[in-house]
Amino acid sequence: SYALTQPPSVSVSPGQTASITCSGDELGDKYACWYQQKAGQSPVLVIYHDTKRPSGIPERFSGSNSGNTATLTISGTQAMDEADYYCQAWGSSTAVVFGGGTKLTVL
Amino acid sequence: EVQLVESGGGLVQPGGSLRLSCAASGFTFRVYEMNWVRQAPGKGLEWVSYISSSGNTIHYADSVKGRFTMSRDIAKNSLYLQMNSLRPEDTAVYYCARGQICDYWGQGTLVTVSS
After folding, report:
1. Within an 8 Å CB–CB cutoff, is residue A57 touching chain B?
2. Which of A33, A42, A86 sits opposite B108 (nearest CB)?
3. Are the beta carbons of B62 and A1 separated by less than 8 Å?
């Protein structure tokens, strides 16, 4: 079955750029989404269709997807961005797949 | 304002059944695909099932296939998940989420399968 792989954790200093990767076979041929989940809260969509930001999501969040890797980039990372991040794609025509999640620490 | 409100969770013994509901409001429910996604305590997100806008196409994760049944009632703006033959590994917060891109999520309802 299709699988998406994320690093378990990423650390970044405030104001720096954080990059979170998501790897899957020919992932660039599919649409990727990214979700932010803060402790005790429901997930929030931050990127869809590889690069698009929903309304209300800050411009510092951006995405890319090519080859086997999708990347979520947070520019000028703020303390409020500390959260778990999950990538998502349709692994086949019949199944949604989530990555295992990446804990972003801002220190 | 888009709202998704899940209900129906609780404590159930292994082998038991539960029916989860998701009440949708603030958007035209009948034109959107919907998903159920779960999250075990301290774990990541796991997709459970998908239903097309018409309800004619439904997909399930292998882990729940044959035990869970997803449905929708357009007249009631509601989504359902009938869960049978529950196992301890089904213990999780269950979320309903809108569309292929899951752009809106409910607050979740906790299902605990334990004797």
Report:
1. no
2. A42
3. yes
What is the three-class DSSP state of B23?
strand
- Read off the pLDDT of residues B19-60 as tens digits, 9 standing for 90 and up: 999 999 999 999 999 999 999 999 999 999 999 999 999 999
Question: SS3 sequence, chain A?
Answer: CCCCECCCEEEECCCCCEEEEEECCCHHHCCEEEEEECCCCCCEEEEECCCECCCCCCCCEEEEEECCEEEEEECCCCHHHCEEEEEEEEEECCEEEECCCEEEEEC
Q: How confident is the model at residue A95 (pLDDT cuts 50, 70, 90)?
A: confident
Diameter of chain B by CA atoms?
A: 40
Contact by Cβ (8 Å): A74, A81: yes
Q: A48 to chain B: nearest residue by CA?
A: B101
Whether B101 and A100 lie within 8 Å, measured CB to CB: no
Roughly how many angstroms between the first and final C-alpha of chain B, as a whole number? 40
Q: How confident is the model at residue B64 (pLDDT cuts 50, 70, 90)?
A: very high
CA angle (A51 as vertex; A47, A57 as ends), nearest 5:
40
Partners of B58 on chain A (C-beta within 8 Å) are none
Cα B69 from Cα B66, distance rounded (Å): 8
